[in-house]
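Researcher: Predict the fold of Helix-turn-helix transcriptional regulator.
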Amino acid sequence: MALEHAILVSLLEQPGSGYELARRFERSIGRFWTATHQQIYRVLKRMEADGWVTAVEIGQEGKPDKRDFTVSATGRDVLTAWLHEPVQPEAVRHDLAVKVRGAAFDDAAGRAALIDEVTRYRTEHEDLLARYLAGEKRDFPDISSLTTGQRLQHVVLRGGIAYERMLLDWLDEVLTELRKES
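Model: Structure tokens for Helix-turn-helix transcriptional regulator follow.
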């Protein structure tokens, strides 16, 4: 997936400024597709030049004017074409998994350090799961009345929740194995 497609999806969900897009990436989309503020602004400029998005200047009192972006008909066509393309399985790169395998060749001190790292990593993902669950409760309190778009947003969030739960289970298993005496 290209950053352009993630931006198109986000702007179709809700038009906004580059700053607002960057905040959305930090808050939700960023767990599936990351981008810096600079990348988002650079890609928005290119998308505007290509006619995929349009921008309107909005004056703000006491602040610099902002540019509010929306998806153009061309942008919708680009997104539709991309949605019809087949998706290939992603190659997974997971540094921690390689470290766990490498622990077989390390001494007890190295495994103890890895236990600390896995514990720290687990805490981060436990916190992320809690944020996902809080977001689900906040954003989807009544799933019986969701629109199609909201249902699709919710199912993506549920995928993130399921992934975090699976990862926490795996990390618990890793910790159990690392703590065993050889």
